[in-house]
Design a protein that fits this description.
The chain has 192 residues and is mainly α. The protein has ten helices and four strands, in the order H-H-E-H-H-H-H-H-E-E-H-H-E-H. Helix 8 (136-148) packs across helix 10 (185-191). The model has no long low-confidence stretch (mean pLDDT 81).
Length: 192
Amino acid sequence: IGDSHTHYSLNPEYIPHTFNYASDSSTYIENYYEVKDIFDRGIKVDTVVLQISSHGFSSMVIENGGTVARNSWRYHKIVPLTDLKILTGYSYPEIIIFSYFPFIQSGKDFFVNKIEMNEQILGWQKGLADFSKIDMDEKARRTVEGHFLNKTVPERKVFNYYIKLLQLLKSNQIKVIFVKYPLSKYYSNYAL
């Protein structure tokens, strides 16, 4: 469970009996509802690998409703309507419209846009980007500013969902392996 770091780094092909349930820009809020959905479906889970990161607790991750709001077409199936209203700030009619007609919310043709698909193996995505062509200094600067400049860390709502997630895992007697991804030298240069 986690964001793009986990999504692209943990390949279940090398770890027997696993599935990578991470997704890009995922927050501890989404992680809570995703794990709850797994349990509600009766899927047997023994251990969860949980990403922990400082940027994951930033108030930036919930600005404008966060990933839940941008992907209400996905989350309306697992997040109760009353919670969606609180998390996104949308009215009930907006939630219904955005959930079933995502192209209205995104402002673009959701169905016609060409999506570059990556190879997927049990939820893990093989990245297609050529990172050698990215200005890592600039990317790190933008990331640090986006997550930490004039932001609240830890953001209370995100932190509370992180605690709820841990309580949910504990109440279901699930072992948790915490993974903290190292910060690159580029990121550290701007974060310190």
